[in-house]
Amino acid sequence: MDTIHLIGYTGALIVGLILGLIGGGGSILTVPLLVYLLGYNPVMATAYSLFVVGATSLVGTYQKHKKGLVDFKIGLAFSFPSFLAVYLSRMYLVPNIPDILFSFNKFMLTKEMGIMIFFALIMVLAAISMIRKAKIQEDKKHKQAYYYTFIQGLAIGTVTGLIGAGGGFLYIPALVLWANLPMKKAVGTSLIIITINSLIGFLGDIQNLKIEWVFLLIFTFISIIGILIGVYLSKFISGEKLKKSFGIFTLIMAIYIIYKEIN
């Protein structure tokens, strides 16, 4: 095993640990790891991230289901417009983004730069949501129409497809605010949405990309080991403090990505 792949597999274990400890953030580490350390282009990295996050979230869904914290009815209802948007964006939108998005004098914004900068901006939003304590008020008297959920699912799914992220930091508030789920059940339910979206989104990539299956499956397997260890360790570590610390780390990473891409 060469040094590059050893670094990648070590990173996979860390990705799983983070997912197990705080229930999100896998793609925040996976995409930069694949791009900057392993040398994959952003399109391939976001595709691999979808598979890794989808597979590890599937394990997380099973664990949450055993505790009665997954509402499959709401999760599947929200998944339909989301996975539709993810699949279509990976199958048609991402491959057809122009190689040159914008140019001015000597500055040129390429497709790969655009994806990474957009990813970094989403990371900023994720970081803010992790750093501050969310004060989400649940309104049990209100239940929104399904067409609102459909539109929201399409929007979040498109973002998920573009950046190759699980999107947990977007789905959890949506499930609490729009589907009126308690916070713990929203976290568990988001995992089934993330699993479906990520894996179906990845199917849209298989037809456009040459997948290095041996590396991807080993990377994913190690991530799953990491999530199992992380879930166990979460019993002894304050999730709130860990989430805030990871949020700060995410913000630093986002700033670094933007700086690296524009220089």
From TrEMBL:
Topology class, membrane: Multi-pass membrane protein
- Please classify the protein's predominant subcellular localization into one broad category: membrane
Alphabetical UniProt keywords: Cell membrane, Membrane, Transmembrane, Transmembrane helix
Ranges annotated as spanning the membrane: 12-37, 43-62, 74-93, 113-134, 146-174, 186-206, 213-233, 245-262
Q: Does the keyword Transit peptide apply?
A: no
Where it sits in the cell: the answer is: Cell membrane; Membrane
Q: Name one Pfam family in it.
A: TauE
Under InterPro entries, the record lists: TM_pro_TauE-like, TSUP/Inactive_protease-like
| Top-level division of the source organism's lineage | Bacteria
Does Transmembrane helix show up as a keyword for this record?
yes
Q: Which family does it belong to?
A: Belongs to the 4-toluene sulfonate uptake permease (TSUP) (TC 2.A.102) family.
What's the protein name? Probable membrane transporter protein
